[in-house]
Amino acid sequence: MAAKQPALGASNYRLFKDRAARWGVSLGGVMVLVALLLIFFYLLYVIEPIFRGVEVNHERSFTSPVSGEVVAMGVEEQSEIGYQFSADGELVFFALKAKEGTDWEPGKALLRQQLTASKPTAFTQTQPQNNRYAYAVEGGAVLLVEPKFNSRFRDGELFITPKVGEVNAGELIQVDPEGENLTKLAHEYDGESMLFAAQTADNRVIVNSIQASRNFLSGAVELESKFTELPITGAISEIVVTPDLRQVLIRQNNRFWVYDVSRTGTVKERQLITLDARRFGEVTSMQLLAGASSVLFGHANGKVSQWFEVAGDDGRRYQFIRDFQAAETAITDIVVEYYRRTFYTISAAGELGVFHTTSEAELYRGQANDVAAERVVIDPRANTLLLLNDQRLHVFDLINEHPEVTWSGLWQEVWYEGYPEPDYVWQSTSGSDDFEPKFSLVPISFGTIKAAAYAMLFAVPIGLAAAVYTAYFMSAGVRKVVKPTVEIMEALPTVILGFLAGLWLAPIVEHYLPGIIAVILLVPLAIVLFAFLTSHLPQSIRNSFTDGRAALILLPLVALVGWFSFQMSPLIENWLFDGNVRRYLTNELGITFDQRNSLVVGIAMGFAVIPTIFSIAEDAVFSVPRHLTNGSLALGATTWQTLTKVVLLTASPGIFSAVMMGLGRAVGETMIVLMATGNTPIMDWNIFEGMRTLSANIAVEMPESEVGSSHYRILFLAAFVLFVFTFAFNTVAELVRQRLRDKYSSM
């Protein structure tokens, strides 16, 4: 009878499972790489727009509705209506584009109104956000007007109609009590208060502070005037008033005066600057930047210089900060945006320039659509540019979303308004519209490194020492309890650790700071001292603890030393620090102490990182082949020599991976640093001060950022930087691990 052939079904099934597992693992690895690449490119997709240049696209052109000289122009917020003030005192509203449902055509006059009965003697306008204009008429009086717009919806569509808003019920305000005509005029207002500065026909420079008050009996509004004549002789070139009504700025050729105005209307000279013509060039124009903290001077050599106040020994003084080469010919006019630190220049050759002061960026320069600019204006949203040339108006679509973002602004020191010197600053938001955002990524990147460094300083010695002892010295029975216990700590939510660190640990550290420092110093010292003493015990006693249980004896010792340190803390504080260690650090040593500081973060985040380091390092040490250790011991090496010369070297790739994995965990940690530190983006290695990390910054500010804004995209850039950080750490770790593995794999 023929022999029965063995069945091959089991072998084929096992082969199928092996191949399926191999393909499944490979597919999983590929999907992980694809996911990482998708994250990488999505971050780049969100970040890329912040580095685009300015686009000035021509939309339409039409004849100006004002035939004479135009002294000012404006555009309403929706960029549907523009307006012009003529030198003859006329205000004209006109359509900027055609609109369905109306008879609007580009350039069609929608409303004309003659504001003054005779030709005005001077004209001025406030900062763009205040949107008020003033004509000086004969006799030293001033008429104030505000272009206004009514909005209404009809069939779901917005319709806007213009109107002339009269200030002070259309009545003239007497600026010069002597009745002289005004040849130069500046005006600003703040609620019920108004400030005028002017030069009269007889070359007097005057300041008139006017406050409105309501009569208690009649209820009528009365204007109270505080008049001052300044000691400046000769004709002045320009005069400007700040929107807070606290300063009057006067230019006479290259001389620049700064006068302070008190709340009572008293005027006092603060500073006189003479701009060196050889260094800066002859001054041809002057303008306040948005926020009114900086003064821009246009020069005959085509440069624009920025000046703002800097605190010094003799108080706050205007000083030169930076300049821009805006053109090759003289700067005839400077136009600023409503809220951002972007400004536009017009040169004598009609060249248009767009610049941003904080980022020191030249955004655009040239003749838009080959049209020489005589006068330009920007709408409130900075989306539309209206240009006047030879009695024709040209409308341009302006794309300038993120002028404040440059690589230098993100990674180099920037001199911000009001700061004594250039610095790295992250301050993205504020309560005021004229706030200057500060987007330096250096402080929060530094905070990430600082938090990770202090956490690793706490976690690496404890994690590695525990891993080596557990894997090499501890008995199998004790190891079965210790290893899972430490590893399960990794499952503890970090929000719980952050909560405990911020609300429980931080007050303890502040109250028992000498005790905390004593614990850090005395516990290792006590362990070493205890080991030294036990080494001199009789051999019979020491042999009874060779099974790895010796560490359990240290638990009461550590608890005793900790208890002793905390009990001695008040005594040490009274003896060495006059009863208040925090005051001693601040007043005597000049060290800032915050309750939620780097020490708290280091302890809490180190506690979270220890399980990661312990688990990987313990597996690496425990996986060292037993024949290596047995061979070393057989050749006469001691247990310690075997550990240092054989075991640690063989396990070094795994140990290094454990450290780098712990570092990656510390770099990306969010909740602990969010709750256990003050979230202050400062650059200081002081262990008693806090920090702000990249991850915590994203968690705090992303919910409040406007989608598509510079703030929003820079937060994504911060995420990209964090991604690069972790990728770099992991890449270096893998390279070092492979080298260590190749070096010691032959053992």
UniProtKB/TrEMBL annotation:
Residue intervals of the ABC transmembrane type-1 domain: 445-733
* Gene3D superfamilies documented for this protein: MetI-like
Q: What is this protein called?
A: ABC transporter permease subunit
Keyword terms of this UniProt record: Membrane, Transmembrane, Transmembrane helix, Transport
Query: Cross-referenced Pfam families, in alphabetical order?
Result: BPD_transp_1
Q: Does the keyword Transmembrane apply?
A: yes
Q: Which residues form a coiled coil?
A: none
Q: List the InterPro entries hit by this protein, alphabetically.
A: MetI-like, MetI-like_sf, WD40_repeat_dom_sf
What membrane topology term does the record carry?
A: Multi-pass membrane protein
Q: Which organism is it from?
A: Pseudidiomarina terrestris
Report the CDD domains cross-referenced here.
TM_PBP2
The record lists the membrane-crossing segments as: 21-45, 451-474, 486-506, 512-534, 546-566, 599-622, 643-663, 712-733
Per UniProt, subcellular location reads as: Cell membrane
UniProt family annotation: Belongs to the binding-protein-dependent transport system permease family.
Query: Is Transport there in the keyword field?
Result: yes
